[in-house]
């Protein structure tokens, strides 16, 4: 297939550290431009990364006729604005998580994509990793029985007041930044469980707010998937020792995704499964989840096929986040 021509809407460290190399190696994709809010910064990033063209504004990138698809790793509060601008300009959009600041913004983005006949997808890269595909297959097979509980722990320690993850106005805080993974992964596993409801029905969230930043630096959440579904719990923190793990408990067994989200691309990852027959460690081959995601999205663009993960999934994830935030304020369970 002809490579999809990508424009990168940011010179973020996340892009440089995790995304640029796997994207550069794909036969399905070609990076043609990168943009920043200043011409000098964009030009320096382009030279450092080996990108042919740079743009000193996001608007210039959106207007670039060579760009077919835009990768958008901007701060959370800018996702909706620039995704809609790119879609209006005829570009497909792969947008970093969370898709927007709330479900209403995400619905507007999805409506714009549909009206333009373009793809819009939230960049939850973990879903493309073989360890998650295998975990979901095991649950769907019924080996663990009906899921009863899912738990996620995800944390890091960042005290930088200038970091966007610690700023309310840019959509910082634990729930937006990493709680979205906890909610997404719970939904991903629950939807595979035999007889389970696909989406949570209500949510509860308790948060500790940082005295200086105002962001939720420690959060504990519950999701209720209804009568036949599991309960999901999570602990997320931006001011704790870095850790991550996802566990699922069924009627006849359990599994754990040991390094669920920041999977190393160059070594095997593993899923631990325990049943009445004992425990086994299932290793999956080394894989770069970012490369797999971009390759799948690019193939969908060329095939004029639906996005590998529909925008409706991003809307549903934000609907759960919206309910969690409401619960923090009300102190009660909130319907999703």
Written description of the protein model:
The protein has 336 residues and is α/β, with parallel strands linked by helices. The protein has 9 helices and 15 strands. It has helices at 13-24, 39-49, 58-63, 79-88, 103-116, 130-141, 174-190, 289-303, 311-330; strands at 4-9, 29-35, 53-55, 69-72, 92-95, 120-122, 147-157, 202-209, 216-224, 231-237, 239-250, 253-257, 269-275, 278-284, 334-335. The strands form 2 sheets. Strands 14-13-12-11-7-10-9-8-15 form a 9-stranded mixed β-sheet. Strands 3-2-1-4-5-6 form a 6-stranded parallel β-sheet. Strand 13 and strand 14 form a beta hairpin. The longest helix has 20 residues, at 311-330. It is globular, with a radius of gyration of 20 Å. The relative contact order is 0.16.
- CATH architectural label of the largest domain: 2-Layer Sandwich
At the fold tier of CATH, the topology name of the largest domain is Dihydrodipicolinate Reductase, domain 2
- Series of secondary-structure elements, N-terminal to C-terminal: EHEHEHEHEHEHEHEEEEEEEHHE
Termini distance?
41 Å
Using the alpha-carbon principal axes, give the shape. globular
Tell me the β content.
Answer: 25-35%
Which sheet architecture does the biggest sheet show?
Answer: 9 strands, mixed
Quick one: CATH class of the largest domain? Answer: Alpha Beta
Q: Determine the number of helices (DSSP H or I, runs of at least 4 residues).
A: 9
* Strands ordered across the widest β-sheet: 14-13-12-11-7-10-9-8-15
Structural class, by secondary structure, is: alpha/beta
CATH superfamily of the largest domain: Dihydrodipicolinate Reductase, domain 2
């Amino acid at each position: 297939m002809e490579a999809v021509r990508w424009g990168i809407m940011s010179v973020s460290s996340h892009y440089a550290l995790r995304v640029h190399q796997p994207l550069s190696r794909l036969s399905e994709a070609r990076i043609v431009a990168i943009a920043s809010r200043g011409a000098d910064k964009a030009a320096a990033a382009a030279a450092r990364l080996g990108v042919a063209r740079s743009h000193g504004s996001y608007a210039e990138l959106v207007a670039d006729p060579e760009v077919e698809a835009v990768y958008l790793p901007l701060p959370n509060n800018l996702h909706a604005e620039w995704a809609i601008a790119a879609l209006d300009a005829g570009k497909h959009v792969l947008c970093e998580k969370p898709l927007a600041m709330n479900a209403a913004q995400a619905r507007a983005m999805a409506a714009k994509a549909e009206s333009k006949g373009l793809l819009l997808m939230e960049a939850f890269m973990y879903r493309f990793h073989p360890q998650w595909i295998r975990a979901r297959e095991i649950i769907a097979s019924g080996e663990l029985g009906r899921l009863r509980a899912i738990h996620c722990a995800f944390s890091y320690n960042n005290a930088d007041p200038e970091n966007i993850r610690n700023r309310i106005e840019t959509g910082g805080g634990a729930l937006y930044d990493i709680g979205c993974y906890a909610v997404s992964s719970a939904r991903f596993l629950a939807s595979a469980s035999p007889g389970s409801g696909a989406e949570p029905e209500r949510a509860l969230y308790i948060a500790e707010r940082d005295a200086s930043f105002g962001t939720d630096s420690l959060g504990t959440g519950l999701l209720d998937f209804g009568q036949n579904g599991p309960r999901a719990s999570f602990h997320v923190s931006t001011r704790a020792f870095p850790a991550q793990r996802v566990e699922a408990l069924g009627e006849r067994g359990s599994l754990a995704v040991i390094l669920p989200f920041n999977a190393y691309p160059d070594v095997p990852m593993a899923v631990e499964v325990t049943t009445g027959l004992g425990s086994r460690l299932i290793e999956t081959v080394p894989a770069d989840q970012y490369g797999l995601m971009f390759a799948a999205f690019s193939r969908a663009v060329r095939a004029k096929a639906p996005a590998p993960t529909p925008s409706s999934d991003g809307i549903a994830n934000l609907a759960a986040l919206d309910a969690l935030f409401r619960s923090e304020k009300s102190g009660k369970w909130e319907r999703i």
